[in-house]
Write the structure tokens for this entry.
Amino acid sequence: MPETGDGSPAALSAEPLSRLTGAGPRVAEKLAARGIASVQDLWLHLPLRYEDRTRLTPIRALRPGEPAQVEGRVEAVERGFRYRPLLRVAIGDDSQATLVLRFFHFRAAQAAQFKVGARVRCYGTPKPGQHGLEIVHPSYRLLDEDDDAALGQSLEPVYPAIEGVGPATLRKLIAQSLERLPPAEALELLPPAMLRGLGLPTLREALLTLHRPPRDADLHALDAGRHPAQRRLILEELLAHHLSLRRQRMALQRHEAPALSGERLAARLLEALPFPLTGAQRRVFAQIRVDLARTSPMLRLVQGDVGSGKTVVAALAAMLAVESGRQAALAAPTELLAEQHLANLRGWLQPLGIHVAWLAGKVTGKARAQALAEVADGRAQVVVGTHALMQEAVVFHDLALAIVDEQHRFGVHQRLALRDKGAGGRYVPHQLVMTATPIPRTLAMTAYADLDVSAIDELPPGRTPVQTVALSTERRPELIERIRAACAEGRQVYWVCTLIDEAQDEPGKPAQAPRIEAQAAQTAYEQLTAALPGVRVALVHGRMKAAEKQAAMRAFKDGAVDLLVATTVIEVGVDVPNASLMIVENAERLGLSQLHQLRGRVGRGAAVSNCVLLYQPPLSAMARQRLETMRQTNDGFVIAEKDLELRGPGELLGTRQTGLASFRVADLARDAALLPQVREMADALLARSPAVADRIIERWVGGAARYAAA
Ligand code: ADP
Ligand code: MG
């Protein structure tokens, strides 16, 4: 591993932007707002894409979806107002074909430029329109008759826009930053032999290639993120994140946790349960038991499909804390879910003489004061609650085990807030986090490198798998009959409305998802109420007050409502075993993991359950595959792998879930194949060159890592 002396990247990275011309205080502020604070950050502000302006494409040769540069003369101009302002400019060229340029946002002066016969050069991605191919909002310029209009000499990088900094300014700043790139050896942190082995360039070469790709660069590889220059950066970025998580874990393990053990209470709980544990539950509890017996803090993620029985495993873990004379806390993301846990835990634990306290937003006044006192003096052996558990006012007597359910719904900071409630700062509590959103193994390695992962990969016996069908929305009337029949038999039904994306194809229109979704649910509620006299219908959507939402959910849970019309807000963890039919509208718009979570609301009782995925034809290839996957399997792990393959990790791993800063160049779905390599490199670096590991973290993750480790 080469050690670098002065002029090291670490030193250079601190070089302030003010050294560059054109980066005055105003510009610097705008850049800082986007996380660009140094010259080095500019190197890593990479182009979003490239435009090949080195050639012109005849209009006849244009292909939908393939960006191209075109030159032609204006043949016709139409200005109108159909729902909104509209400008359409038809241009033609020597290839005797016509292309339409379409604008929704334009100024009058801009529209006036387009005169019949004017020469226009434009760049954009054609797609099929009403009258042949069209480009919506192309970049364009009008050429004078005598303009020789030379073509570009290299691929033109298009940078992600930064508010308040024009593209030309940004380009100039980046060009200056590149002039300050140190020689390859000084910049490089990865072992040269390894880079050669992988056929990857040095960091210096990679950066230069990406900012100034030569004319013959492989544009397809660049667009796909598979160019060696990109892979070089991706590798280092993934490595940095992985190292950062490993470091955090090492830091955590330097703290001391109370060793928890004992056989008696867990055994008594197991005896009292009306069911035996599944093999998977037993295995995972055994793993937890080993962790808890240690004096270094456990940090374990339990993944288990919806209905796999995570709660009981959490309760068993809590028994070890209680038997050791300490406290356990269980936090859930919604009040309803937390109440469900409270009812379960009290049902199981009170007969064992264990006191379970309750803290949630709605616990106020005397009840809250009482609960806080019990938590503080240790009378509360187990505490169940919502975010309210994480508030400052909550002081534990001796918190030894912090359990967080559906942890992806909490922020990492909240998890840490609960962790920091360990007894008097001497101990860090053990942490158990649970999720029903399985993470494919490959991802777990990077996203959760700081956690041990256990899987409850088996459902309790006697569950009948949910039968899933996909139906075109035209067959909606048949469903009304089916709902009537199910309700007549005393079954309960979910009707889930998802976003109807009317905003499609309208650039610049603000997202209105919650409103549109709520409206859709309202409409469905009215229609279903009218169509199903005698059926008790309730409505839940995200724009209702929390109390109203909960009242409706509770009525459904209590059997006072037969049909619950809801938006996707019902996704998380609610257990209504009597609900055995679910209809999901516009199912084609949802990702696999979301569909799977939704479907997990049914199939919790003994009755055969059905899930109907209603879709709006025609289906895209991707949507078809998703629905097909849902039809074929109920296995959350299979679905997670497929989801990753189809859609990428965006939804699987929000930053909320992982605490990872978002990646600059990496894309976990696309780049998952690099992860084994990443792990191997990390092992080697941590063992042999920890200082280099730190510099890699510093370069890519920087202060974020320090915060999370704090
Ligand atoms: P999740 O993993 O989705 O949180 P829960 O813990 O809510 O699942 O369990 C779902 C249901 O299955 C609960 O009613 C629970 O009592 C029941 N259950 C849990 N473990 C078993 C088991 N081993 N055998 C039978 N039923 C079980
Ligand atoms: Mg649960």
Notes: The two ends are 29 Å apart (CA to CA).
